[in-house]
Design goal:
Radius of gyration: 23 Å
Strand content: under 5%
Helix content: over 70%
């Protein structure tokens, strides 16, 4: 009976922690959006649209760079998990084709790396 209560407490604490972390992340994103909008308003009040356009382009460039970096990291991690899983299953279940299951995350990692290097690479803007 004590194990049931312990599991209940751990699950409740974990869910509370996750909800607080999600709330904090949303709050941070709202704060960043507020500061970006405030900066855009200040630049727009200068009556010259060139700095505002440069500011918006820079924000877009930074967001694209973050997305590409996240895709690279996810691809490398998933690739490593696929390699480790393939090797583990090859040694654990010798004589069977169970190691082929490890090819699933391995190929997902390769696809993420291809995505980050070919599709998400920065484009040179037309002059």
């Amino acid at each position: 009976m004590a194990a049931f209560w312990m599991i209940t407490i751990v699950v409740a604490a974990s869910l509370a922690f996750i909800s607080v972390m999600v709330w904090l992340e949303n709050r941070r994103q709202e704060r960043e959006a507020h500061y970006r909008n405030e900066m855009a308003q200040r630049i727009a009040e200068a009556r010259d649209p060139a700095p505002l356009l440069a500011y918006v382009r820079e924000l877009e460039r930074i967001a694209a760079l973050r997305t590409r970096t996240k895709a690279r990291a996810a691809g490398v991690i998933t690739l490593a998990v696929g390699i480790a899983m393939t090797l583990l299953l090859f040694k654990a279940a010798q004589g069977t084709a169970a190691y082929l299951v490890g090819l699933i995350p391995l190929l997902v990692g390769v696809a993420l790396l291809i995505l980050s290097e070919l599709i998400l690479r920065p484009r040179i803007p037309a002059a």
